[in-house]
Amino acid sequence: MKLKSILIAFVLLANVALAQQPDLVQYVNTLQGTNSKHELTRGNTYPTTALPFGMHTWTPQTGNNGDGWKYQYFKKTIRGFQQAHQCSSWSNDYCVFSLMPVTGKLTVNENDRQAGFDHKNEVAKPNYYKVKLDNNIVTEMAPTDRGAHLRFTFPKNGKSYLVLDGYTGLSEVKIYPKERKITGYVHNGRIREDLKSYFEIIFDKPFVKYGTWDNTNNTVEEGTLTAQGKGKGAYIEFKQGETVQAKTASSYISEEQASLTLKTELGKFKTLEQTKAAAAKVWNDHLGKILVEGGSEEDKATFYSCYFRASLFSRQFFEYDKDGKPYYFSPYDGKVHQGYMFTDTGFWDTFRAQFPLNTIMQPTMHGRYMQAMLDAQEQCGWLPSWSFPGEAGSMIGNHAISLLADAWAKGIRTFNPEQALKAYLHEATNKGPWGPANGRHGWKEYYELGYVPYPEYREATAKTLEYAYDDFCGYNLAKMTGNDFYADVFSRQMYNYKNVYDPGTRFMRGKQKDGKWVPNFDPIEWGGPFTEGNAWHYQWSVFQDIKGLINLMKGEQNFTAKLDSVFSEPNTVKVGTYGGLIHEMTEMVMANLGQYAHGNQPIQHMIYLYNYAGQPWKSQFHARNVMHKLYNSTEDGYPGDEDQGQTSSWYVLSAMGFYSVCPGTDQYVIGSPMFKKMTISLENGKKFIIDATNNNKENVYISTATLNGKTYTKNFITHSDITNGGILKFEMSNKPNLQRGLSVDDKPFSLSK
């Protein structure tokens, strides 16, 4: 009797604990940003079913095999449920296979087996995806870090088939009828020849029939147990009207590791409901690290949907062995190593906000990431710039050094700074074999001339600006760690932005090798010396020295007038070297905020620059305006590419009331908080609270502020202000305070004084 009472008490306590955990998963819509196409992106996302930073994700598939637009909201049919890793529609996916339930006649071809669906029959949450197809098959999915639990419920009046599609490259399948199991591997996407994703799938119902098939010619081999080659797949027939559970996990190391992972991650879950509940617990714990109060239900849905997206990249690329120790197959040298590895991100996008957000919310993971970058450099000879899953070298700049300097400035010191600086010097004085951001395009001219000349090098002015910022990060890391040699080397280049500023037009411009400006300049013309933007956008890419830029522009009045002009200029474009409209142009025009193009990264920090020039209230106004106008929780939720968590992280940080204008320093520049109260639960056990009294949609201006009870006039806060815990209190108003934050000491960091 006593034991029974103890058990009842334990159950009651457990229920109370569960009741106290807010259900934040309810706010997340994983369909946010899925209404995208090549010509116009609303996020270029897909309904990701995954755990935070999970190695594999799962998603429904509306697009053809190999199509980067794997799920588009306006499509009417689904052709598969994929293991996915895609971080950008523009770079497609890798190591994909899919499962598709079929009823009636066996149809294996992706076009023939696709089935209609309606969004009203779809549930899309981080921990659970469900859809009832028009043929009455119900598919459900719940995630683990490296696998998924799926359930297929077939109608009673038709045969029950499940088709495994090996996607676009090489694959192998092996069917084990007695064990109700399929194993194999897939090798597809832009990956090294020896990288395979080994999978194991275990079913809870017996097979009636089975066989293999070939998606290159859609031939079926009934009764065969194995197949290997391009596009090989499998099919299984179950009892008519069956409900089938499938557990699957994948490994980049071996079939044996896939089997071990399946047992470790899914072995304890007998039903999909258990896996779904466990994933909800993980997500509610994760999302609950930032609790918001006030605001509308839509505001909360937008915030937590963005925080979900900000928590997917970079992905884990490591696995746990039989002793629970981390190890990984390296996509850089093809060997198995002990420790941690991460992948699927492009630093050109994510150095700006996604990684700075992680320094606050995920410092342990971030510390592991820093060492993993240096491990990657040892394995392939180059620091990562765009990992997918190995080095792709896409976009511009050498922003690994931004991550490393930013981590060190914020007290995350899990790596050898001498090793980091040596690796960066190699990066900055060589050109690697992969893409423009692997090493440096135009590195010799950059050192000899102080800029990258155009047209000898595409995107030359954008590269000059970003190289100068990266050199500042190298300088600052060297300075913080007492390394005079590297500090001296990088200090010579960190002001090179001045060499591409034309005082005549008051714009950054393309410069020829002979020192003359590139003729026929028009600031609204895209491309040429700029990357996915124009002179209006790159004018502000001097993260490290905004005061120096103010000086170039002859004072704060000219500077703020130019900032104002970004929003007041007509939202017209000239296509320039692109030869036609690209989606970023269309999205800027649709946003109707003048030349402000929030749908792409180069200008996303610009709103916060009024803080450097005596008009902080304008940063407050524009930050809130962009949050309200350009974001929502629907399928049209973003103003352009979401880009591996960057555009979401901009929103999450901005909703907190600040933003990382210059990663590589310990400062965040203040804007306007989105909610009346936000409580951040930190990894160190402390809490940082942003309390915005009288906050609402109209009261966007900071009237007064205190930090831990003391009057606070600065236009920035430091990382330690946050991690030490405390209360940042704002008194909000519908009228700007024109006297607050104007002194020299109130202004954020700049190299120039």
Quick structural overview:
By secondary structure, the protein is of the alpha+beta class. About 30% of the residues lie in helices and about 25% in strands.
What can you tell me about this protein's structure?
- This protein is α+β, with helices and mostly antiparallel strands and 753 residues long.
- Helix content is 29%, strand content 23%.
- It has 20 helices and 35 strands.
- Strands 2-5-6-7-8-17-12-11-10-15 form a 10-stranded antiparallel sheet. It has a 7-stranded antiparallel sheet with strand order 1-3-4-9-16-13-14, with no helix packed on it. The protein has a 6-stranded mixed sheet with strand order 18-30-31-35-32-33.
- Strand 10 and strand 11 form a beta hairpin.
- Helix 8 packs antiparallel against helix 9, helix 9 (400-409) runs parallel beside helix 12 (460-480) and helix 12 (460-480) runs antiparallel to helix 13.
